[in-house]
């Protein structure tokens, strides 16, 4: 499986300005032109990126990116040297990755929700049906679901799952036969984007509204869709092993001790949801003088990478051997995060780097786990809208429509592309090409040798 890291800014961008103190005194008289009431600078400056500006090898019109309607929009997918995209006429088209030559087209009135799996493209139509088409453009099947606002498609084994907020459908991948379709309470459930199947059990996460809104996981029989159990205030599983589900528990407003902090990992029986106890990873902090209590993100989240559980403890990052748990054990390793409390963990490690998003700039930040050094991939001349990591490269789309490619290891800017649009979708890669989703165009760029 190709390793990628990507994220986008969906909530807008802001630039913080830090004021300098005003200094009084006598100065020479200035010209009589009207003066501003307040004038200040934060001492920062915008530096241009010194990298060759290159032109795309080709471009192709696609439907414009609309994150309000499709939060996980996939205008295109790239596999095996080809690109499969929804064009400006809402048809599925196949393009040769190196030249942009159109190979075939299929259907009409299609939506930007599609995946590629095992040589087949699965996508959604505006009438709520799901379709399957081979890489050569041959229709395999189409099935009516009534999911006119479907958000995600997943293929797991022999089943294709489709989600639409509180609704879920399961379809046989080979025949298109509907296995089952279920719906939770639309007034309290809002579906999130994670779904997994293990040992005949399907687990999906939601935001569920009660007196307060928290994440919840629901477990279903994968064959029938029958609900087996649910757990409120529980995050999507870190792992499932030997019939036990391990999930981060949300204890906000239940255990808000500002000094004696902890992360709780709940354990459930996969089939029944019966509690198997929990684990606690503890640390202490100095109490905030302003009386605020911070939780989540860098203040108390966790994720599992291999055998290592990484726990974000505010000013520190700690790792533990997850499969050799001992109560109140000390971390195997620890890194300082002091001065970086504005970061949000992306729960991803690649090439020995832990990745974060900077709330202030939207930029991509990484920590070298070998040394604890923080490195910045947001030294562009405008805020980051979209960032993706593939292989040896980091690809950043800025709010001014300029797109940069950086060397992952050296941070050196390698190339720049002027896209002409402020909106970006996830960058795609296949072979020696990347494909930039920008506005209503798909742009193909041949990668320099250093990034292949």
UniProtKB/TrEMBL annotation:
Record's SMART domains?
PQQ
What Gene3D superfamilies does the entry give?
A: YVTN repeat-like/Quinoprotein amine dehydrogenase
Q: Which InterPro entries match?
A: PQQ_b-propeller_rpt, PQQ_rpt_dom, Quinoprotein_ADH-like_sf, WD40/YVTN_repeat-like_dom_sf
What superkingdom heads the lineage?
A: Bacteria
List each copy of the Pyrrolo-quinoline quinone repeat domain by range.
Answer: 127-374
What name does the UniProt record give this protein?
Answer: Pyrrolo-quinoline quinone repeat domain-containing protein
Source organism of this protein record: Paenibacillus brasilensis
The organism's taxonomic lineage, starting at the top = Bacteria, Bacillati, Bacillota, Bacilli, Bacillales
